[in-house]
Every structure is written in structure tokens, then in C-alpha cells.
Amino acid sequence: MAGPMRIRAQVNGDEVNVRALMAHPMETGFRKDSSGNPIPAHYITEVIASVNGKTVLTAEWSGAISTNPYFEFDVKAKKGDKITLKWIDNKGESKEETVEVK
Amino acid sequence: WSLTSNAEQAAKEAEQLYNLPPFGNVSLLHITDCHAQLRPIYFREPQVNLGVGSMAGQVPHLVGEHFLKHYGIPRGSIEAHAFTYLDFVEKAKLYGKVGGFAHLRTLVKRLKASRPGALLLDGGDTWQGSGLSLWTNAQDMVDACKLLGVDVMTLHWEATFGAERVKEVEAKDFAGQIDIVAQNVHTTDFEDPVFKPYVIKNINGVPVAIVGQAFPYTPVANPRWLVPEWSYGIKDQQLQAAVDQARAEGAQVVVVLSHNGMDVDLKMASRVTGVDVIFGGHTHDGVYQPVVVENAGGKTLVTNAGSNGKFLGVMDLDVKNGKIQGYRYRLIPIFANLLPADPEMEAYIAKVRAPYESKLAEPLAVAEGLLYRRGNFNGTWDQVICDALIAVRGADIAFSPGFRWGTTILPGQTITMEHLLDQTAITYPWSTLTEMTGAQIKNVLEDVADNLFNPDPYYQQGGDMVRVGGLKYAIDPNAPMGQRIQEMTLNGKPLDPNKKYKVAGWAPVAEESREAGPPVWEIVAEYLRAQKTVRIKELNVPRIIGMEGNPGLGL
Amino acid sequence: VHAARQMENAFQAKKLEEALQALGAANAAESGDVVLTAPDIAENGAVVPMEIESKLPNTEAIALFIEKNPNPLAAVFHLTPDALPRVKTRVKMGQSSDVVAVVKAGGKYYMTKKEVKVTLGGCGG
Ligand SMILES: [Mn+2]
Ligand SMILES: [Mn+2]
């Protein structure tokens, strides 16, 4: 279910632009399957971004974020820094990925 | 007042069209929205092209006499015929067919000879619109554009051949010859550019940037599943960045080759600075002279060059000291009888048509009256399609999309399969038959009406109102979204919001509707063969509310 | 490092006003320093790009609401001084709606809104 996370980190002066694609169904809980039964909610509730282990940004999401979420932001960082993204969903599943800024 | 002297007069008048003294040192030739019409055709301009809000009564929302008055064109002249619907049948018989790539090439060659270094820009909607282009997977048009000498193009309907096909043509057929530019198309994953945003060409020592703007709502107006990994949009900020970057690279002239549609281009010209000219298409408006738009950075000229191969736009710029000092613009109608066919192009067209000639020539019926499509609400051609859908599919109501392409047939002309495909040849031609409640039907009409009459052009998609068979209604274009459609009746009875009706249609954009029913041309062909002579019982147009005196409404 | 979910009440709200209230942003002032970039017409209601940038100093948080969604609050972003006040994501929209972006800066709330149209599609020139 929780597939790989794709992250791009691009240096731009003393900032780094981070773009991430996460693999997640992001089920809202409002949909029904073909036989009319509600599809249970299953979505990412939190995303934590950190630079070299220090949290710089956290996001709280609802099921309104699109399937396989896209998340872009900029942080103060430089070449060689390690940028980590971690998500946690409403079922308690989580995924973490780290990239080094090149 | 004999027909002969009339024709001689016409010839004289028309020859004047093609005698165009050169001006300045940078010339850009522009074609757009030819919709795969390789050979001359008839094409009637709209009688209804309403502008609402701030667009009311403004170019391009002028038709007939209002158009002629605005530009000072005499009624009855060859230009009056080319640019308006007035006296259409009489004048079409007199002046003959328009467009055709062989005739166009003759004019392009003449102009390029008198204007060394001139570029030919193609605004898109080039590959789609004929049976031949559908059957050859657009190869007929790809090769025709190379032979014509197109230098740069942007896109709309091209995408309905699928993303892979577009990229294949770009990489193989067009390599080293035709640049595809589109600053507003990005991948759906990381938003990487799909095409070059612009190219810079040196014209007589002047660096000229041509920035591309593909039709921003391609995945809305056409099936998204054909370009699942491409995302479009208007993207003013990115356009500004592209213009600034081109200037920084030394471009002295920056033009945008746009498929936004005229109203969107006019708004964009007021917001984006540093653009000298927007060469526009999509809304098929034959705009006689550019509209000059003022913005924070100066002025931008906005043009639109009609459709169906009928016109060639010629922009001559005088560039000195890194700036445009003056311009001359002409939108020249192509009259096939008055421009000799280029033999090389004519031979090419004959060759590419040969395997399909007998299929295209199949006679289906005779048209009793004029068959045309263009106009905000309905055309007689669409009425035939709606009548056929109702009759053949056994529906209560028919919907036919408000496409602006589609050629015209004169009274008494034989309708061939080629003519029918001129109205219907798309890569998702399936007919549909669905049950819809009265409320759902109103919802569809309201949705399309807002795409046409939203007072903010960025919320419009271009195109015309969906054509409706069976159902009668009234429309108030000035009303807010959800309140424009009124007085809906079927067979004299008010439409019941809760009752289900059988609705036939075609050109579904949803992937689930692939192969839903036979291609629409099969249905219309069956109907036409049975009719033998096509008679329009009644052109079903809505009652239009609140538009009295609007110069976009012809009488 | 694990940030607890702080805004559960706001996420459960079914009306925009209630969601703003739950966030403490009911009196957010309209501001040109909150820049919301979203398409005028969504090309796919299931994937509508949204970018919010704050030009206000000391931006602490950014929130995004889709008025006509069953739960209007779509996302809240908590920023430290090491993150720049700009975020971009993609959201689901069931129908045409106003989209509201709220920024918390220096303890105060600011907002802007934009209409995004979700259409049935078809037609064209
Ligand atoms: Mn178009
Ligand atoms: Mn077109």
C-alpha cells in the first residue's frame, strides 16, 4: 500500500526547494464501493520535514489531499544537508525517506 | 449586372487582396485552426457571437453589419464576404471556395519572397478535423505543414491523438524543421516542462522570441485520458518569467503564439508585460486588425486568424534600435479561384488522399438548404446531427458539442462522407445514450453556458453552447451561473427535474465512455442515406434573453 | 520527532465558518500579502494544484480550506523560521467552490480566497 516516496531537493542560493511525491490512496471515508459499502478512511494525517534531524515544517492533512500526494516547500539548507520527510496516516502506518542535497 | 461582369469585378477586387507591399524588417506569417482542411472548402462566419460583461460589443464579439461598420468594410465586397455571414450563399457562389494548402502555399511563397527571413507560425488545431487526418493518424497534416514551411507551432486538438503521438512527431518528423512551443504544459508528477517554452529566431539580425501557449483547458474540453501525464493551465506568472528570460537572452521582439482564445488573450495581454504581439487562435475569430491592449509595460497587439485554412495573417514589423517602431497587419482571405494552386502541394495532397478517395467521395444525401455549424447556439449542420441522433438512437433529447470547426455546404450540394467527417472526425467519436433527469440536463446546460458566458474570460473554455435537439429552452447569458437556463420544455411540457429522459450524445470525454456506442458518423450517415434530401424542419435555437442590441447578434 | 495532530476539531468541522472558528481564525483579515495560486478551472477535480505564499513577516502557519468540501479544512502547515512561507500541494474538489488560504503571522490571522471552477468538460473550438 505505502509505496516509495520520490523526493527532489534543489539548491537555490541558501535555500533548498523540496518536492515530494508520496504513494498513498488518500481515501476520504466519504466514498462507497461498487456494492454501496462505505470505503473506510485511509489518509495521511501528518507530514514532518526535517533538515539534518531538526524539524523545520510539519503539515496536518485531511483526506482532501489528492491521491499520491504532492508536497512542495522551501527550507534554509545547503549542499550536503540531509532532508527527511516522514508521513503518518490515520491507521498509524508511516513512511520515511531521506535525501542528501546535491 | 451580368454574372460575367460580376465575376470579373470579383477577380479584380480579389487580386488587390494579394498585392501587399513589404514593410519593415521582421515579418511573421500566421495560420491557425485549419482543422486539417487541406483542400478548399466553404466556411460561413457566425451570425451569433455574443460578448457579455466588459466584452459586450467589443472585438471579437461583432458580427455582420456591426463588424463591417467597425472596420469600415463596404457591404457586398469580397472582404465583407470573407469576414461575415452576410449574403453568404450568393457570395459563396460568386467567389467560390476558400482555403486549401496548395493555394495557401502559393501565397506563403510569394510573401516569403518579398519578405526575406519571414517565419510561418502555426497556432494549432492543425492535425484534427477531417476524415483523412483521422485515418492517417495526422500524418497527412504533419507532412503538409513541413511542405508548407511552418517554422513554429503550438497545440490544442493535436493532443487528442495522444501524448505519445505528439512527442513522436516532435522528435522524428519535426526535428530540425518545426519547433513545438508551449510554456504552459507540464508533467503531472514534478511539473517538468513537456515542451520548449519558447524559441529565439534571428530575422534579418533581429532576435525574435516566439513563446508558446497551448490551449490551457485541453484536459477539460477534451479527454484527459489521452494526455494523462500532462497538465495545462493559463499560467500568467510562468509566461511572464518566460518573456523576461527571452528578453534577458537578447530577444528584441517577443511574440506569443497562443491557443488561448481571443478573450483570454486580451485579458492576458493586460496582465503580462513585455509581449509585443499575441498571435491568437482557438476561438476561430477572423479579427480584421489587431486589438491594441495597454498594460503596465507598454502595449501588446492581439490578433486572431480565423479557421479552416481560410486566412493568412501577415504581421510586418519595423524594428530599429532594438524596438518596434511601427507595424502593418493584414488578415488575408485565401480564395482558391484567385490564387493558383502550388503544384507540389497539390500533388502531395492528391497522393495522400488517393487511398481514401472513394471512401471520402461516397454521396450520402443532397442538402436542401445551407448547412453550417458556427454560431453561439446552433447551426443547421448540428441540427442534422441532433435530428439523426434522436431518430436513430430513439432518444427524447440530443446533445451535440459546440465545436467551432466544421465546413459549410451550399444549398443543392451533395453531402459526401468527407463533409460528414469534417463535422465529426475526432479520436473519441463514440455516440452515447444515457438516462438523465431533468435536473441533470439543466446542470449540463448551465455548466456549458458558464464556460461560454462567464464574465471573466479566464473561467471560459471557448467553444460554443452545446447544441440541443428536442428540448426547448431560454437563456439569459448575463445571469449568474446556475440561473441562465430557463423555460425548459419537451414536446410543449415543462421538463420535470425528477423524471428521467433518454439523452443521445457523442464525443464523451470520460474514459468510462470509450466505445460507448458506434461512432457518430455511422449514425448520421445512416440517417442521411435514408433521408436522401436533407431538410431542416426547425433550427432549434433557444430564446435569448437580455441581448437586444448586442452587436454580437446578427439579424 | 513526532508532531501531535493539533487541529482535529477544525478538520471535523462541516462548515467553513466553523472550521475557521476552530482554528481561531474566524476574524482573519483579508490581505494582499497572502498569495493563493490555483487554477481558474480545475482540469481534474481530483487533483487541483494549490500554492500558498505568505509575504507577511513571522509567518507561523498556513491553512487551506475548500469551502464546499464535506470537511472544508484540507491542510494546516506549521512553519519554523527554517522553512520559507510557501507551500504547494494538490487537493480534491467535488464541485466548484471558493478556496480560502489563511496565514497566521505574528499571532494574527490573514486570509485570501479564490473561486475554482470544476466543470463537466467537453466542447471547444
Ligand atoms: Mn482549439
Ligand atoms: Mn480550433
Automatic annotation (TrEMBL), chain A:
Domain Sulphur oxidation protein SoxZ: start-end pairs: 7-99
Gene3D superfamilies given in the database record: Immunoglobulins
Record-linked InterPro entries: Ig-like_fold, Ig_E-set, SoxZ, SoxZ_dom
Entries under SUPFAM superfamilies matching the protein: E set domains
NCBIfam families, per the entry: SoxZ_true (TIGR04490)
Protein name in the entry: SoxZ
Native organism: Hydrogenophilus thermoluteolus
